[in-house]
Amino acid sequence: MATIVAEATGTPILEEEHGRPFIRKYIFSTDHKTIGIQFLFMSLFFLLVGGLLALLIRYQLAWPGRPIPLGQGLPETVAPAGVMLPEFYNALVTMHGTFMVFFAIMPLLVGVYANYLIPLQIGARDMAFPRLNMASFWISVPAGLIMLASFMVEGGAAGAGWTSYAPLSARPDLSGVSLGQQMWIVSLVLLGLGSILGAVNYITTVTNMRAPGMTWFRLPLSVWSLFITAILVLLAMPVLSAAAIMLLFDQTIGTNFFLASQGGQPLLWQHLFWFFGHPEVYILILPAMGMVSEIIANGSRKPIFGYRSMVFAIIAIAFLGFIVWGHHMFQSGMNPALAMSFMISTLVIAVPSAIKVFNWMATMWEGNIHLHTPMLFAVGFVMLFVIGGLSGVYMAATPVDIFIHDTYFIVAHIHYVLFGGSLFAIFGAIYYWFPKMFGRMINPTVGKIHFALTFVLFNVTFFPMHGLGMGGMMRRIYDPEQYEHIAGMQDTNVLVSLAAIGLFATGLLFLVIFLYSLFRGKPAPANPWNATTLEWQTPSPPKHGNWKEIPVVYHGPYEYSHPAMDRDWLAQNERPDVVSPAHQPATGSTPLQKGGASE
Amino acid sequence: MEAKHLERGLAAVAAVALFACGGDGDGDRTESRPGGEAELAPAPVVDPAVAATIRGVVAFEGEALVAVEIDMSEEPACAEKYTAGPPMTHDVVAENGRLANVFVYVKEGLEGTFPVPADPVVLDQDGCRYHPHVLGIQVGQTLLVRNSDPTLHNINAQPSVNRGFNISQPQAGMESRRDFRRPEVMIPVKCDVHGWMGSYIGVLDHPYHSVSAADGSFSLSPLPPGTYVIEGWHEVYGTAKQEVTVGDGETAEISFTFSADMAADAIVPLGEPVELHADHQGTAVYAGNGIRAAGRE
Amino acid sequence: MDWSLPLNASTQGAMIDRLFWLIFAITMAALVIVESGVLWFLWRYRRREGRRARYTHGNNVAEVVWTAVPALVMIFLGIYSGRIWAQIRSPESFPEDALTIRVVAKQFEWNITYPGSDRVLGSNDDFTIRNRFEIPVDEPVVVRLQSEDVIHSFFIPQLRVKQDAVPGMVIPIWFQATETGQFQIGCAELCGLGHYRMRARVKVHDQPSYRRWVTERSAAALGVTD
User: Fold this and answer.
1) Who's near B286: CB < 8 A, 6+ residues apart?
2) Which chains touch B (3 or more CB pairs under 8 A)?
3) Residue B100 near residue B213, CB atoms below 8 Å
4) Residue A592: which of A215, A273, A37, A162 has the closest Cα?
5) pLDDT under 70: residue ranges of chain C
6) In CA terms, which of A420, A547, B110, B139 is 20 to 30 Å from B125?
7) Model-level pTM?
8) Burial class of residue A235 in the structure, from the number of CB atoms within 10 Å of its CB (0-12 exposed, 13-18 middle, 19+ buried)
9) ipTM
10) b/e per residue, B204-223, with b = 16+ CB within 10 A?
11) Which residue of C has its CA nearest to B71?
12) Does B73 touch chain C (CB under 8 A)?
């Protein structure tokens, strides 16, 4: 089937695209690579926005009530004489979470890499639905701009947290925010639509457009994880959209889905939100895991250890991810008996994550480890994700959750998973695929400096938050000095904020590195990392249509250090006869089908 | 209520559609102005030679509700401002048969439009209480809310025909400015941090309003000669009105009498949401007391 | 910079803390194993000229081991946590004759209604105090938690108590203080612009002092209502 599709979208497109005007080629392009790069620029911009908001939050927490430096120009409704108001602080907290989750991490993983990598790694010329793909990007952009614009309307941006718990989010008279909250909803519904369009596309493409020989179990783990993620998006996103529209109706036309005084139920919002929200957490981490697997195999020069158990772990996480949402609600007033079952499913979901960590370690074991910049970030991912995963056990245990729920312990946890985890993987992925995307290399020395600074400052910023949480510091508190039990920890808050400022500066350094390399980086060869997957077997950057001829796949995705080869890698599409017959792996059934070593 | 909701919803949609044209730094201005207000006709000049005055007192009969002490023990920054005696509720101040804090205003009989005073009306938060407790303001006139306490206050105004706001002032010396677009009697204002704090704002499209002093006295001037309906409004005892005619340069003396049993009709049960009854003119009469609920202890 | 749990002053706190430190021990062990393993591999198997990585696709025994071990640890933790949870939150765990106090949260204050000398809520010696939560030591206390407007969360760190207050619901929780002292209630669920200082004083009395305090307040309440 794959060949048919490949022929249908074959050479004619190649020529057609070259003659296209600038606007069709770079702005309203249907090329999956261009769209991926567009998503990259968009989400890096929102990453910067989210970081800036975080900086303001940290400033207020370290030095509560002091005028923000350079904040004199802020409007009186936000920060009179530069002193941030609590409602602005709430908006900052809300929008930081919203931008980072929905407009930075999610599009960085799904928008950028699903778009860029899937066709290249499965050996297709483009996505199944290129126009749908373009639409998904051009729906996401206005969604982000609406979100950004909500800072400028009366009452300010949404201030009920990125989780927007009703009734606070549903009642402007209680929150002081009306239009801002409505724009938050409209923006997320749009973003959800864009994500759903993308997900349909990824699923169809992976299912139908794999190159000849690219069996399911020869798919790179990045494709596997993006494929499963797309299914999660498709199933979870509509729930958020539905809930958000109900919230919009509560706000504007007087329905009462979430308002208890009129017969509604506030907990309904939480159930709907987290039914989406927990799969969302895995949407934000699964692709990161997939790409980290890719980089660790490459850096270790070894096949990924336990490929199949990695795949099954992804599937298990995705499935279990739908039945753990209640662990966000242990203290919400939900039936305590129900909490027990959610606790069990939550503890169980730790197991596949543990499997993945052990497999990454085993992949490094007896490897020949090249610590290139992507590998540094991938190893950083493993080290930090472990902390994030283990701190999750505290919350899963319901009695401990009584104490640490809604404290900085949770804030530490989520940042270890989403920053230490997802964002480190994203940095690794950017360094890894930058040569392919832009045809230029990033200087390895500056990359390593960037890694070292990020790793150290990340830990100084977020590790102490565990301590703040253990001390009982609540989330989303505008002024920690208001409480006796928190005031004594103010020095920790100052330390965290200082490190956060450094972390933000490091982020700016990355932008400089990124932009410099974009224009001045050394030209990249087709396969700078000596990697095995298909995207490295075509020029950097690939031309429109990706391949001269559709590749034929003979091997599994991570045939590093194959004993029959002189060099330590064997590309997926290399003809089996390059491998000497004595050592030739059984290509009909890949060497990966057995868990054991297949020498 | 539904219509208002719809209006907000449409405003939301419109604003979302319009945002691309550039957000407005202060969203207050995005609200459309009601019909005639946009083109202000020249103000009728009240010739000082013929200007009239309506003045009088608000009398009170019966046993007034007793003021009770406010427990400010958890807010030392405010409590320490009361050196003479403990802070008391002051929603009902009735001494010597006179009732204070009655909002007296010209309800009917004025024609034309009136210039908006340039000076702001100040609502001060001092000692965790609002000063003044009842105030009048003209449509478009600036309301200056000031925090004189070194603690957080929020100012939560929930009108029924104007757009509400809920803002905070975490530090002493902070000031916020707001205005109202439509006449509305009265707009309740509360602080959610200090449940006993309440204030009422009467918004009119003319400057003829007054709040009765401790001795019950009030005065409206300089009025053009004419026949007017004057209404007195009290947060506990409801409203009373009367018609009065003043000729050129005259001063008319009137008096209102509120009585303890009027409270029975006007009060809503404690703890109930504040109710506003719209009258036929589209303004609203506040007929209850949601504020005292928290102060009753 | 004191990173530890605050002083514990309740019976359930002791159970929670014990579980906390058990999880701490388990997770720390796992953390040390993984991090030191990663660092050791990075050093031991760093790139060298002429070295070739071991060509292996996995090992089923290893997979089974590292699936089973975490699974067993998690099952153990689940059972142990479940038992503690049941002792704190299950309906059967509520003591029969506990002192019942109503806490009504609203933006941004805690209105606390005490049952008075007769220990019955809804009788006319009840009294309500804003932002002051006073309880006796060594006696089970049931809090019936309500909210008037948005979701708040009733959090007393030293008593290891946290429960959201949800509009439209009356949520009972119980606990028993083991130490006298003064603490604070904080709101742990974002409830609006005054969330950060929605606090109340907590006073744990010794038994005689509590009885005195209640008698005094009840008498005053009766005096006012009569």
Assistant:
1) B185, B186, B187, B188, B200, B233, B235, B274, B276
2) A, C
3) yes
4) A215
5) 1-2, 224-226
6) B139
7) 0.89
8) middle
9) 0.95
10) bbbbbbbbbbeebbbebeeb
11) C130
12) yes
